[in-house]
Amino acid sequence: MSVFSRGFRGRRADSDTHLPPGQYLTEDFPVLTAGPTPRVDTDTWTFTLTTETGRSQSWTWKDFLALPQEHPHTDIHCVTRWSKLATDWTGVALDTFLDKVDTAADYALAYCYGDYTTNLPLEDLRHGQAWIVHEFDSHPLPPEHGGPARLLVPHLYLWKSAKWIRGVRLLDHDEPGFWEQAGYHDYGDPWREQRYWGD
């Protein structure tokens, strides 16, 4: 497993730019990953939503593209201290997948091609706060940034926006994911600098 850089430094934000504490502004889109980049063919890609009772529904790439598409315009913040403002994405709101699901779950675990996982409270995936995105700046999402599709939860640090998304399991208990088990904060709010356990 490779280790990503904690030392990336962009330019310090202008005084009139409002960033979370400890963040630097970048015009680039740094690539940070903890292992090899999966190459996922859209012919075989699926997204599966599984409830806490084990009931599941899957969407192929064609099914996914046929769902209502949204265009989030949002800032993103990486735990390695860079922030990128006013980014543009295209994808499907998690609400679209969740609205017809009968669940009493409080938590979700996103899992990915390449075996990465991350945990989130289910409420953070609802109410227009999260998407499965497949385009960035009107172009197909490249593999190094999580293509063909990734989770986007922009109000949390970017490690919660799992690359190469494959599915979401709904849970009645919290189950820490890859980085959370390695000492990253369980929630990851950039405005409260929740980078690591104890923050």
TrEMBL record:
Cross-referenced SUPFAM superfamilies: Oxidoreductase molybdopterin-binding domain
Gene3D superfamilies tied to this protein: Oxidoreductase, molybdopterin-binding domain
Domain Oxidoreductase molybdopterin-binding, chain residue ranges per copy: 35-179
UniProt-annotated stretches for the region Disordered: 1-24
Protein name: Sulfite oxidase-like oxidoreductase
First and last residue of the signal peptide: none
